[in-house]
Amino acid sequence: MRRFVGLLAVLLASLLIFEILSSLRLKEAYEGESAQVAYRLLDMLDHEQQRIIEDAHHILVTARAFGVGQMDASACRNVMERIAAEFPRHLQLSISDPDGRTWCATDPDEIGRQFYDMGHFRRAMEAGRFTVGHFTLPSVTEAARLPFSLRLEGPGGTPAGLATVSLELGWLAGYLSKRALPPNTSIVIADGEGVILARIPDHQSWVGQKLPERFSVMLEADENGLVEMPGLEGTSRLFAFSPLKSGVLGLMVAIGFDEHSTLYAVRLAALQSFIAFLGLLLISGGAAAWGLRQYLRVRSKAEQALRQTEARLQLALKSARAGAFEWNMKTGEVYWSDEIYRIFAFDPQKQQPSDETWRGSIHPADRDFVNVLFQDIREGKRKTYEAEYRIIVSNHNVRWIFSSGYAQEIGDGEGVHVTGLCMDITERKRIEEALKRSEERLTLVLSSVDAGMWDWDLPTGTVEWSEGLYRLFDLDPETFTPSAEKWFEVLPPEDRGMVQAYVDHTLAMGKPEYRVEHRVRHSDGSIRWLLGIGRIFYDEAGQPFRILGLGIDITEHKELEEALREGEARYRGLVESQRDLVVRINDEGRFTFVNETMCKLLGRDCAELIGAHWTDYVHPDDHEKTREAMERAVTEPEHRTTVECRLRTPSGERWYMWEGTAVFDPDGNYLENQATGRDMTDRHRMEENLRQAKEEAEQANASKSRFLAAASHDLRQPVQSLFLFTTLLEEYVEGEKARSVLAVLRRSLETLKSLLDSLLDISRLEAGVIEVNIEDFSLDMLLQDIEVAYTPLARDKGLDLRVGHPDSPIRVRSDRLLLGRMLRNLIENALRYTERGYVRVFCRQTENGLCLEVEDSGIGIPPEHLSRIFEEFHQVGNEARDRSQGLGLGLAIVKRLSLLLNHPIHVRSDLGKGSVFTIEVPLANGILDADSARTQEAWQDP
Fold this sequence. Notes:
By secondary structure, the protein is an alpha+beta fold. The chain is built from 24 helices and 32 strands. The N and C termini lie far apart (151 Å).
């Protein structure tokens, strides 16, 4: 009995200790539950903020896809007026140009105003993507806003402005205050600058103020967290927060609890429970002995029931495709049920339960998230958890896992023990993702095409309309109850019978769907066009029981069709009235359009030419260049090209100049070539006649030159004879008068010989009968001959002729005689046009050889004559055509010899001061010897 009493005392003491520990654990659990509630509320707020921002994002994407930024102001404002009535009052949609000025908005008062936050405007324009702004007061009298913006693109991808949805922050605070929150809960939302956007409850005007410095830990954190600190009003709170980096597009959200007031009820309940426990402990002591006896009796039955329950639990887990696990986080001991092996595709024979094996199967993208979750459990930051993550099983397949569990301390220092379940939710995730994508596509489609849906239950006659359908019919959902009869009644009388007959016919024929276009009249008298699309469902007996339909506003489409018809009519009238040919050719080379002028030219009907290949009518010799021109139009940046080709017509070949343009669709895909052809036959005939006349003139001139070159000896012979006779006459002529006449005769013969030599030289050059003998020779010998020949002539005229000579030989590569003839003609020309002063002959070195220069101090050459002095019979200062001054062929001969020898010649002149003629001559072997190089500087200027 004593042993039993001692055992009972130990039992009661244990119960007392257990109660105390239970109270402490209750407080700890409540604190943990408070943190869990804070995190769940934080997730709820994040999701709310995400939904608001996604709504703004969807609005901006839809506006950009609808082409609002490329509309004119009138069309854009019409669109804004249509959606303004349905647009939430706390949101404003505005369109700004690249300078930040608003030109279109749901609020007419915004039009013409400068964007209220130019810093955000510039960031959004530079980023080019969806951008969230900061707290902004548009003016002193207006409510604070939070802007969301998306850059609009113009032609060629250039920035065309900004579409902006602004959220009224006063509405945001009111909206959050309506959420179901635990008592004495505080919510704070701030932007990236630390400015408070909303605070619940708002005891004073917190919105627009900067967060205190102690809140920087929330702004600068890398991930969601939990922190205990004074709130805005100074009360100590436990805050769960999502920072800027992991929050919703640059917003910080924090939710906090007043722990003192929150745990007051827990402490009071624990005290009451403890007092009650002491009373019950005394009562329980008496019953303990009896209870002990009963316990021993029923224990065996309980163990048997426990085994049955465990078996049923295993069966339930297997049927639910769930597995159980236990994990001692200190010792690393892990237990897996059979279902865990199946879910994770582990082999029980090869893979032993362990933390490393489990972590190794987690998808890399979720590994950090799971590690942080269990690190919080290890550090005691949370007791329970629910998580969804991915794993990689064999063959690189991915599965989604839902895991939930409870963590508790086991014994003194034995670490944290986690017990939990894992379920395969891959199929559920696939269904959710498919449903989400379907809903997103449907929402986007309906919003982008201005459409609404209806659902018509045929047996009951009930009809359900979406909000968009009320808008399309301009009806009030509060006063109008949709039905089949009322739907037909709201149609215009001229369309009502047609639509009803069409629907009845579709049902009678058992067709699965119908499409019908009809009009509706709005309250303002305007007419809108709608496209009705209905999908009909039939039962097993073939009777229709449901119609699911869609109404789409196609007014703009109808207007475009009408404008297109009018434009096509005007275009066809313009094209058919053209005298030029107009065609279109597809990528296969076949005609898709020809105008009437083309049909008349080819003597074919339009139907015969459409589909014919262009090579059937273009001359074969012109196929290649025509094909190349068409290819150039496709590849060149301007996509324009021209080509001349011959067309084969019933009246013969005709030349046409074609100007073509490549045509592309809006996606940049090539469609066809469009070309206009102008008749160039008369011009080609004229050009051919001119070409033939030119060839005949050139042949005649060449014949003349060949004749003169061939007859040069015969023409010179009489002149040589006359010179001989005048020499003989000198012996027989006496008297001064007779000798004077003989001298005049001799000068006339010299002039005649000079003129004849020039004419014959030109003829020989034109006929190409002069043979060029290129050799290496000493330039000094040539210069000595010239100096000896022309010094007396210069002295007789009172001029100073100076010829520069090198100190050592310089050899050039040229024709000795022809180069000498070029220098003589230049010197004679200089002596003829220089009355006083000098004539100098010298040379200078260049990169490519030597330049022989003839400089004089004569009359110079007027600028307008510089381009003509090398022409035949052109003379400066000889208007009277005095043939004693020559025929003007000297420089023409120099020019032709320079071309024949490939010795470029240049001239520069200063009127009234003289001229300089330069001949470029190559050196022998292309170099100067050392002595020549040393003496050249002195030789350049004689």
